[in-house]
Specification:
This protein has 191 residues and is α/β, with parallel strands linked by helices. The chain contains 10 helices and 8 strands. 47% of the residues lie in helices and 19% in strands. It is globular.
Length: 191
Amino acid sequence: QVETASFLSLRRRAFCFNEAGTGKTSAAIWAADYLMSLGLVKRVLILCPLSIMYSAWQADVFNTAMHRSCAVAYGSSEKRKRIIEDVYEFVIINYDGVSIVEQEIKDGQFDLIIIDEPTEGLAPKIVALVGQYLETLKQKGISVLLIEQKLTIAMDISDRVLVMGHGSIVFSGTPAQLREDAYTRREWLEV
């Protein structure tokens, strides 16, 4: 987790391909907290599946960055708007909720967006739209930390990638370097 947090906090756009159970959530929060302590980030928007908003993200913010304020933007449109417009340092929202408060998110002055598994369970056409949206964020210079199991989108838009296996970094480099690294792809990424 320390290696992952270090990797994530040292790069403007970073994508994390760690295995399940390796502490990606905590590492992302630690990296965000570190950038906040340096004054480089003031607010973090976390986009994630509804099923893990409370159990993973909110719980981990409370456990790893208990000195930071955090709220889950879920419920009525008015409740979501109030939370986003408030001064919470970490705001967690599910993907479906984004369209309900899209303007408030744009106006929310988020310096860092953490996107957790955006293509999970989506149809290929929707996955392509997610890729286009992530590319738009990149072009605007918005810092994005993407936690994703599918390499296709991330490899196309990332500047740097990190692959972890069994809790250790097994690869750190550019997408081009990862494409050329047959051993890492075969041992850690291909089924």
